[in-house]
Amino acid sequence: MVMALVLAAAPAAAETPERDKIAATVAAQRDTTIKALRDWIALPTIAAEKRGTPEGAEYMKQLALDAGFQQARIIPTDGVPAVFATLDAGAPTTLGIYFMYDVKQFDPAEWDSPPLEGRLVERPGEGLAIYGRGAVNQKGPEMAFLAAIKAIQASGRKLPVNLVLVAEGEEEVASTHFDQVVAVPEVQAALAKTIGVFIPSAAQSKDGSANITLGAKGAVEFQLVVGGETSDKYPKTDIHSSNHARIENPAWRLVKALDTLVADDGHTPAIDGWFENVRPLTPRQKELIAEGAKLNPEAQEKAALGIGRWIDDEDYITSLERFYSQPTVNIQGLVAGYTGPGGKTVLPGRAEAKLEFRLVPAMTKAEAVGKLKAHLAKRGFDDVQVTVSGGYGPNETEEDSVLIRAQKRLFDETGIPYAIRPRNAGSWPGVIFNGPPLNLPASQFGLSRGGGAHAPNEWFLIESSEPKVYGLDQATMAYVDYLYTVAEEAAK
User: How far is residue 303 from each of residues 293, 296, 307, 426, 466, measured CA to CA in Å?
Assistant: First the structure.
């Protein structure tokens, strides 16, 4: 971890020419940027519900064209379409950008304001924030990036790098068809010319410190189903519960199958051969985790998660090592029979579990799915149907890659303390770029703050009451500075 003195107002990156002029443009377009973000929040694309498609792709295409990309086109897939765009600035360096234009599902009854309104709300102790589904994951950071490239061009300058943008509409269902997008010859050829790919994010903590991540876990989403559709042992619909004396209950069968996937402790994966290819943390990665803990206090972490202890009452550092290194088998939800008020004497005709794997180096999606199916088959669960809805493997980027060097340099120059994480415990499909045939560095970058991703009351900071934390304008300028810093680092 590198520590730097925090300045009340972060200085300009020395390499950004006419920065004051660009910053003035960012400030002048601020209201327009906020309106654009609110309009984008109002149009959700939710792949799981088949909502907002193909409208979301058309909207994303227009956002790219409005930001100055010379060409943008929709790439069809077997699912939700993607968008591919290029901006040629005549620069010697080309940078890849990954966007997700889809968002998670939401229940308006759980929100304090309408989830598609984009309401501006004062957050006590933080400042003015915009609330809405997708505000931080990832439309807020992405809109700030688009505002940055608009401001550079509106200030009469060419971008210091050429840009290749790929934007998908299925990230929230584990990027089911994103590999089809990158396999398109024109898209692959354009990405092959880049020095790497990054996703805009909001990586600042409440104290103003930031995090650099060197990768992310992979994710596989799948469902296990037992019922009349998988075997004639079970009824086709819910029937009277008295029949359980002579007819098997698919919910019990599913519970028995699920119980084999983890050890008796309830969390350690027990799928046959699960840890065979798991790469342990290196001494350097353990060092980074320990140093990063200093910028992310344990009490703060527990408060944010609403918990009082870690698994097995482990100490904080051990829990963090588990967080970044442990592949997981998680139950997201269980659905079977009657779930309304009171009881109902039925024997369910169907039981379903929604699960996910989180994968670490050097595991793969194909390996994880294959081992799951073999594990169930070995135990006679031939009546348990496995449906994989999406997924990808983990990704890793070297600490000395151009993308990471540029982040370190920018944080050093702007006086932002930061920690380097060996990987993000969450997931994004960076492996599509990181792995063959492209073999590119893949990273995340962005300042400002937000929260509530995948949850009610999702938010992204617009005006910060803490000088160390960036609001929308400062976050936009951070992208401006990052582009110039990347260009300089690439030229070395």
Answer: 15, 12, 7, 19, 20
- Looking at this protein, which amino acid is placed at residue 248? E
pLDDT in tens, 273-311: 999 999 999 999 999 999 999 988 899 899 989 999 999
Bridge partners, residue 355, by sequence: 222, 331
Cα separation, 202 vs 98, whole angstroms: 15
Q: Please, what is the angle between helix 140-154 and helix 472-491, to 10°?
A: 70
Spell out the residues 6+ positions from residue 427 whose beta carbon is closer than 8 angstroms to its own: 174, 216, 217, 218, 219, 358, 392, 394
Report which residue type is found at 126: E
Instruction: Report the DSSP beta bridge partners of residue 391.
Output: 220
Q: Which residue type does 429 have?
A: P
> If 0-12 CB within 10 Å is exposed, 13-18 middle and 19+ buried, where does residue 90 land?
exposed
By C-alpha distance, which of 461, 443, 463 is closest to 451?
A: 461
Whole-number Å distance between alpha carbons of 85 and 325: 35
Instruction: Evaluate if pTM is beyond 0.85.
Output: yes
Phi and psi, residue 413, nearest 5°: -70, -30
What is the DSSP secondary structure assignment for residue 56, as one 8-state letter? H
Q: Three-state SS for 332?
A: strand
Beta strand 82-87 with 162-168: parallel, antiparallel or unpaired?
Answer: antiparallel
Beta pairing, strands 395-396 & 239-240: unpaired
List phi, psi (to 5°) of 409.
Answer: -60, -45
